[in-house]
C-alpha cells in the first residue's frame, strides 16, 4: 500500500523539491546563461528516486526489518535508474532538443567525474527520501502512542470513577435510611440534596474538568446531607477561602477524603469532629481534612478502595503537580493535599 501524504506533508514536499530542483539549475551553468535540456530532464525525473524510497522501499521493507531485501532492491534500483537516465535521456530523448551550443565538456579525470556527480546527486536524493520516510514514520508512531496512552488513561479514570460512584451512593443512601428510620422531618430535604448531588455526578462530573466553584458546591451539598443525620452539627466545620471562579479541577477528586472523614470520624450516635479547609491562593488548591477516629475502626480493606482510587487519579491527572500527605495517629486522622491547578 502506497503511503498517504497529508496536506501539511504535501506542502513540505513542494518546498523541499523547489529547493532541490532550482539549486542545480541556477548554479550549474550560471556563467553561460544557458541550461542544457538534459539537466531539465534529470531534474524532472529525480522525484522518482525520492518517492520510490519514501513511499515503497522504506515502508514495505526497511520498516518491516527486511534489511537485506531493502539493500538489494535499493542498489538494483539505483543502478537501473542511473543507467536509464544516462543512456536513454541524455543520449536519445534529450537529443531532440539540442539545437543550441553545449556547455564546456567537464574533464573526466581519473574517476570519471562527469558521470560521478549525477550518480552522487541521485544517491543523495534517494537517501533523503529514506530519511524523510523514517522521520515521518517516527512522528506518526509517536502520535499514535500518545493517543493510545491518552485513551488508556481515560478508560482507567472512567473505571476508577465508576468504582467511586456506587461507593458514594451507598453511603448517601445509608444516611437517608437513618433519617427515614428515625422519622426525621429532614428526610425530604435529604432526598432533594441527594438528587442535586446525583445530577452533578451524571451531567457535569463526566466532563474532563469542571469549575472549581461547582466542585466545592458539590462538596457543600454532600456535607449538608451528612449533617442531617448528625446530632452535633457544630462539630462539622467547613472553611472556604480564596477566589475559585476562574479555576478548574478534575471532578470528584476530593469527595473520597470527605466520605472517609464522615464514615470513620463518627460513632453513629451522632458524635463527631470533622474540620475541612479549602484554601485557594496563587492558583493552588490547599485541601485539609481532620477528623477524630470514631469507635468504628478503620477497615483498611474497605476504606482503601476509595483512597487507592483517588491516589491513582491524582497520580494520573496531576502527576508532579500535587502533594498528598496522610497522617494517622490512631486518634486523629489528617489529610493534607495541595494541587497546582495551573499545571
Automatic annotation (TrEMBL):
Top-level division of the source organism's lineage:
Bacteria
User: Listed GO molecular functions?
Assistant: phosphorelay sensor kinase activity
What cellular-component terms does GO give this entry? membrane
Name the InterPro entries on file: Bact_2-comp_sensor_kinase (IPR050640), HATPase_C_sf (IPR036890), Sig_transdc_His_kin_internal (IPR010559)
Pfam families (alphabetical): His_kinase
Q: Which residues cross the membrane?
A: 12-32, 44-62, 67-84, 116-136
- Tell me what this protein is called: Sensor histidine kinase
What are the top taxonomic ranks of the organism? Bacteria, Pseudomonadati, Bacteroidota, Flavobacteriia, Flavobacteriales
Amino acid at each position: 500500500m502506497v503511503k498517504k501524504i497529508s496536506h501539511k506533508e504535501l506542502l513540505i514536499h513542494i518546498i523541499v523539491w523547489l529547493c532541490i530542483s532550482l539549486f542545480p539549475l541556477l548554479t550549474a551553468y550560471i556563467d553561460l546563461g544557458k541550461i542544457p535540456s538534459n539537466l531539465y530532464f534529470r531534474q524532472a525525473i529525480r522525484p522518482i528516486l525520492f518517492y520510490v524510497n519514501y513511499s515503497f522501499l522504506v515502508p514495505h521493507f526497511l520498516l518491516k526489518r527486511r534489511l537485506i531485501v531493502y539493500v538489494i532492491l535499493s542498489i538494483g534500483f539505483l543502478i537501473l535508474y542511473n543507467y536509464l537516465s544516462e543512456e536513454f535521456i541524455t543520449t536519445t530523448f534529450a537529443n531532440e532538443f539540442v539545437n543550441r551550443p553545449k556547455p564546456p565538456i567537464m574533464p573526466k579525470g581519473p574517476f570519471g567525474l562527469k558521470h560521478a556527480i549525477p550518480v552522487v546527486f541521485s544517491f543523495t536524493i534517494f537517501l533523503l527520501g529514506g530519511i524523510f520516510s523514517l522521520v515521518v514514520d517516527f512522528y506518526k508512531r509517536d502520535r499514535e502512542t500518545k493517543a493510545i496512552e491518552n485513551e488508556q488513561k481515560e478508560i482507567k479514570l472512567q473505571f476508577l470513577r465508576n468504582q467511586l460512584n456506587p461507593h458514594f451512593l451507598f453511603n448517601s443512601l445509608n444516611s437517608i435510611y437513618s433519617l427515614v428510620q428515625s422519622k426525621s422531618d429532614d428526610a425530604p430535604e435529604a432526598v432533594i440534596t441527594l438528587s442535586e448531588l446525583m445530577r452533578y455526578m451524571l451531567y457535569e462530573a463526566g466532563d474532563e474538568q469542571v469549575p472549581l466553584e461547582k466542585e466545592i458546591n458539590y462538596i457543600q451539598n454532600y456535607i449538608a446531607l451528612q449533617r442531617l443525620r448528625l446530632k452535633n452539627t457544630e462539630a462539622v466545620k467547613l472553611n472556604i477561602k480564596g477566589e475559585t471562579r476562574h479555576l478548574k479541577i478534575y471532578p470528584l477528586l476530593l469527595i473520597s477524603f470527605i466520605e472517609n472523614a464522615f464514615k470513620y470520624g463518627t460513632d453513629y450516635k451522632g458524635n463527631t469532629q470533622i474540620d475541612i479547609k479549602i484554601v485557594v491562593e496563587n492558583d493552588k488548591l490547599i485541601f485539609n481534612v481532620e477528623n477524630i477516629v470514631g469507635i468504628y475502626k478503620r477497615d483498611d480493606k474497605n476504606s482503601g478502595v476509595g483512597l487507592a482510587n483517588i491516589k491513582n487519579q491524582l497520580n494520573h491527572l496531576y502527576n508532579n503537580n500535587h502533594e498528598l500527605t496522610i497522617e494517622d495517629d490512631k486518634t486523629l486522622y489528617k489529610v493534607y493535599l495541595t494541587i497546582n491547578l495551573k499545571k
